C-alpha cells in the first residue's frame, strides 16, 4: 500500500514505456515490505535540468537514468563515482538532502553477470568493442583484475580518449586496437565485450566477424532486447561459448542501484523473476 511515508524512485528517459525496471524494483519492494515505489518518467531532453531540480525538491530518494540522458546528467550532479566520472555517463542517482550523487552501475552489473556465467576475469585479456558508455564496464573489469584491455572503436580518437582516462585504473595494459588489426588482437583475446549499439534492432549485423565467436572464448553482450536474445548471444550459445547477456547485466545493475537507495541487500530472486 502506498502511504504518506512511501519513498518515490523513478526511471528518467525518453522513451521509457518499454522498461522492465518498474516491474523488477517494485516486485522486490513488495516481497520485502519496503515502503518504496518506482515509476517511469518520460522526459524530453530540454526539460532534463528542470526535472532533476524538481526531483530533489520533491525529496525523491533517487532515480535511474536511461537514454538519451546518461551523459547530459553529468553537469547536473554534485558528486560522481569513478565509473560515472571516467565514462561520462550516469545511470543511477542517489539524493541525500541537497546533494545529488551520480553512479554508473552498468559496469558492476556486467561483472556480476560474468561471475554468474562462470566467466573468470582475473588476469584475462579482453577486447572491448565501443568506447562510449563502455568505459564503465572497463573500469569495473579493471576492478575485477583483468590483465589486458584492447579497445576497438569506429572513432580511434574516442578510443584513445578512453585509454587516457583508464590510466589510473588497475590494469596491466590498456591498448587501442585499430579496426584493421582486429584479427591479430583476437588471437590473444579470451573475453570479447560488445558495448556498441549493434544488436538493438532486428537485422543489425554482428559487431564482430562470426569467426571470432568460438568455444573457449567468452562473449559479453551489453545489448538487451526485450523478449529475445541478440544475434551475437545466440551464435555464442550455438558454438558453446560462455555468455554474459545484456539481460543479466540489466538485472544486476538494478540490484546495485537498489542497494544504493535502500542500504539493504536487494531481493535478487524476486527481481529476476519479475523480468524473466
Describe this structure in words.
This protein is an alpha/beta fold and 276 residues long. It has two domains: 7-105 and 249-275, Rossmann fold (3-Layer(aba) Sandwich); 119-241, NAD(P)-binding Rossmann-like Domain (Rossmann fold), CATH 3.40.50.720. 36% of the residues lie in helices and 20% in strands. It is built from ten helices and twelve strands. Strands 2-1-3-5-6-4 form a six-stranded mixed beta sheet. Helix 5 links the parallel strand 7 and strand 8 (148-152). Helix 1 runs antiparallel to helix 10, helix 4 crosses helix 5 and helix 4 (106-117) packs across helix 9. The model has no long low-confidence stretch (mean pLDDT 93).
The CATH class of the largest domain is Alpha Beta
**Most strands sheet:** 6 strands, mixed
Mean pLDDT: 93
Count the beta strands.
12
Amino acid at each position: 500500500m502506498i502511504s504518506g511515508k512511501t519513498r518515490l524512485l523513478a526511471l528518467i528517459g525518453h522513451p521509457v514505456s518499454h522498461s522492465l525496471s518498474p516491474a523488477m524494483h517494485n516486485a522486490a519492494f513488495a516481497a520485502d515490505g519496503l515502503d518504496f515505489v518506482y515509476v517511469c518518467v518520460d522526459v524530453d531532453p530540454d526539460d532534463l535540468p528542470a526535472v532533476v531540480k524538481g526531483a530533489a525538491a520533491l525529496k525523491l530518494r533517487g532515480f535511474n537514468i536511461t537514454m538519451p540522458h546518461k551523459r547530459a546528467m553529468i553537469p547536473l550532479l554534485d558528486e560522481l563515482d569513478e565509473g560515472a566520472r571516467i565514462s561520462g555517463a550516469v545511470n543511477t542517482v542517489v539524493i541525500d538532502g541537497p546533494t545529488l550523487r551520480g553512479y554508473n552501475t552498468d559496469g558492476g552489473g556486467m561483472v556480476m553477470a560474468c561471475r554468474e556465467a562462470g566467466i573468470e576475469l582475473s588476469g584475462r585479456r579482453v577486447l572491448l568493442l565501443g568506447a562510449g558508455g563502455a568505459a564503465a564496464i572497463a573500469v569495473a573489469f579493471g576492478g575485477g583484475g583483468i590483465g589486458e584491455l584492447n579497445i576497438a572503436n569506429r572513432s580511434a580518437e574516442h578510443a584513445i580518449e578512453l585509454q587516457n582516462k583508464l590510466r589510473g585504473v588497475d590494469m596491466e595494459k590498456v591498448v587501442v586496437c585499430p579496426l584493421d588489426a582486429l584479427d591479430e588482437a583476437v588471437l590473444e583475446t579470451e573475453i570479447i565485450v560488445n558495448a556498441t549499439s549493434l544488436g538493438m534492432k532486428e537485422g543489425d549485423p554482428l559487431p564482430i566477424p562470426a569467426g571470432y565467436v568460438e568455444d573457449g572464448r567468452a562473449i559479453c553482450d551489453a545489448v538487451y532486447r526485450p523478449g529475445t536474445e541478440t544475434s551475437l548471444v545466440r551464435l555464442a550459445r550455438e558454438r558453446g561459448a560462455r555468455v554474459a547477456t545484456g539481460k543479466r547485466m540489466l538485472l544486476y545493475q538494478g540490484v546495485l542501484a537498489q542497494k544504493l537507495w535502500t542500504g539493504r541487500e536487494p531481493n535478487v530472486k524476486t527481481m529476476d523473476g519479475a523480468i524473466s
